[in-house]
Amino acid sequence: MTEELSLLAPDDWHLHFRDGQMLQQTVPATARCFQRAVVMPNLVPPVTTGAMAQAYRARILAARPEGSTFEPLMTLFLTNQTTPDDIVQAKAMGVVAAKLYPAGATTNSSAAVQSVAALQPVFETMQAQGMLLLVHGEVTQAHIDIFDREKAFIDTHLTQIVDRNPGLKVVLEHITTSDAVDFVLQASDRVAATVTPQHLLLNRNDLLVGGIRPHNFCLPVLKRNTHQRALQAAVASGTAKIFLGTDSAPHEKAKKENACGCAGCYSAWSAIELYAQVFEDLGALDKLEAFASHSGADFYGLPRNRHSIRLVKDSWQVPDDIALSNGESLVPFFAGQAVRWRLA
Ligand code: DOR
Ligand code: ZN
């Protein structure tokens, strides 16, 4: 039995740090093991220009623990007002990717994209600039069942984006269905996906059976177990097209345990450990390093990290909550539950 794992330092290709005081909590949690992270732009107001991204990056860097070399990779929030020139400027300011949220799909996305087709000139500029397109793949029409929204997005929008822009690198973020797995695996090598720990570990029973579990509520919502198994099989296959993206997304406890609870799982304190647990349970520990530390960097065209981290087989319990400096608290993902692997 494996008792210890050495991994090239992993990167988190999708997360939410938020802003202000929250950075004092979220940045150290991720920097403890991840060398880089792709930082989502759904702040209030959203990060819509290179200058906003640069200023946000400086606030994140200021929240790094002493001596940390952690590097945030910044993203732009697309709207129907985004211009090709915004893309050129953002790229020149170090922004690596732009995020497409369909308007209203998730947290702080009301200002996002109403018409995907109208963004075609922006996609063409992104392709020319070598900027990646990161996609929240869910339609938002009221008549489409929430469990079908990912597949509907793939069928109505993503297929077209990919077909019309063969040189554009596209990441379908936080995939949740066998439909997404099938789409990504059959697409060209310009198309990849991230997958979260919760979508590998859980299915919709973990959200709804025995009472509503608000801390397992995220978007796209957890799906039925057949989809969970398709995600597990995909990562266990060792495909380079699906890599680590936690979607760690903190919301204060009172906003999760609420009559209208926010979507998001704050997984930064346990994510790498839980991915290790999933891969071990799948008999695929030998595929963990490529998933966590090679495939994302390779897809983004960035160098792989040089140093390593160590995980040891030593069970610990995720805390029930985490105090914030404003007197509020966060309930971390997997709160109160045992995790088999510990970061050494
Ligand atoms: O669960 C989610 N939380 N999904 C998202 O797409 C956004 C995120 C957030 O920002 O809270
Ligand atoms: Zn996200």
From TrEMBL:
Pathway stated in the Swiss-Prot or TrEMBL entry: Pyrimidine metabolism; UMP biosynthesis via de novo pathway; (S)-dihydroorotate from bicarbonate: step 3/3
Species assigned in the record: Reinekea forsetii
Binding site for Zn(2+) 1: 14, 16, 99, 247
Broad class of enzyme this protein falls into: hydrolase
Residues annotated as the enzyme's active site: 247
GO cellular component: cytosol
Stated name of the protein: Dihydroorotase
Annotated substrate binding sites: 16-18, 42, 136, 219, 251, 263
GO terms, biological process: 'de novo' pyrimidine nucleobase biosynthetic process; 'de novo' UMP biosynthetic process
Catalytic activity: (S)-dihydroorotate + H2O = N-carbamoyl-L-aspartate + H(+)
